[in-house]
Amino acid sequence: MRILIADDDPQILRALRVTLRARGYEIFTADDGAQALEMAAENHPDLVVLDLGMPKLDGVEVIQGLRGWTQVPILVVSGRTDAADKVDALDAGADDYVTKPFAIDELLARIRALTRRVVAPGDEPIVAFGDISVDFSAKQVVRRQDKRTENVRLTPTEWRILELLVHSPDKLVTRESLLTQIWGPHHTKDTGYLRLYFAQLRKKLEPVPSEPRYLVTVLGMGYRFVPDPASES
Q1: Least C-beta-crowded within 10 Å: which of 129, 137, 143, 177?
Q2: Alpha-carbon distance 93 to 87, whole Å?
Q3: Who's near 26: CB < 8 A, 6+ residues apart?
C-alpha cells in the first residue's frame, strides 16, 4: 500500500514516515501543496494523508486538484479545529478528518478503514460494452462477434487510458488529468498524444471508429466512457 504524506512540519513527516514504514506501507512525502500534487501524479498513491496549512497551495486546494483526476482516499490531518475548516475539506472531497494532536492508534485505524475501500487488483470487475469484454485483472480484451471470440492487444499506455475512463463511467475525464496521470505534470499541453492514442483505441474497440459510441470526445474539454450509449439518447 502506497501512502503520500503531505505536511510542512518536518517532525510530523519524519514521525509518520517511520511509523507507517514500520507497518509495511510504502511512503512518499511532500512539504508543500504544489509538491503534493506533483508527487501524487508521479507515484499514484493508494491513500493521501494531508495537512491543510501548507505553503504554495493549501490543503483544500490540493484536495480540489486531486479530485480533478483521481478518487484516491484523502485523510486530512490538521491542527485546525474549527468546524468550518472540516466542512470545507470534506466538501472539497476529503474522505476523513483527524485533528492534531492525534493518537497514533487512532490515525492507524482511520488509515486501515480508508485503505479497505481500495480495490485490490484481483478484485477489479470485468467490464463489457458492445461486443467488447475487458478484464482488468487479467489484462485481457476480448471481442465477441458471430459466436467467435478474438483477443484484442492493447499497449500499456492504451490500457492506462482505458482504465482511467472505464473507472469513471459517464463522467468527464479532462485532457489535463489524463496527461498528468499518464505522462506526468509537465505534459499537460501534449494533447496530440491523446488524440493519437484515442484514435488507436477506437480502431480496436469501437464498432465504427469514426463514429465513436463508447469512447466519446467532449469537445474542448476531454473524454467520457459511455457504457450504455442508449441512455444518452
Answers
A1: 137
A2: 10
A3: 1, 2, 3
Roughly how many angstroms between the first and final C-alpha of the chain, as a whole number? 41
pLDDT of 7 higher than 90: yes
Residues 41 and 139 occupy one common structural domain: no
d(CA 139, CA 156): 10
Joined grid coordinates for residue 95: 474522505
Whole-angstrom Cα distance, residue 224 to residue 233? 15
Domain end (from 115, 136, 158): 115
The strand pair at 47-50 and 74-78 is best described as parallel
Can you say whether the dihedral through the CA atoms of 92, 94, 95, 97 is positive or negative? negative
Q: Which domain holds residue 78?
A: 2-115
Of 69, 88, 115, which residue is a domain's last? 115
Task: State which amino acid sits at residue 78.
Answer: S
**196 and 100 belong to one structural domain:** no
Same domain, 170 and 107: no
pLDDT of 173 over the 60 cut: yes
* Region of residue 14 (phi > 0: left; psi between -120 and 50: alpha; otherwise: beta): alpha
Residue 138 sits in a domain whose CATH number is: 1.10.10.10
User: Residue 56 corresponds to which cell in the numbers above?
Assistant: 504554495
**What is the count of structural domains for the chain?**
2
Q: Stretch 178-193: mean pLDDT, rounded? A: 77
Q: Are 37 and 28 in contact (CB under 8 A)?
A: no
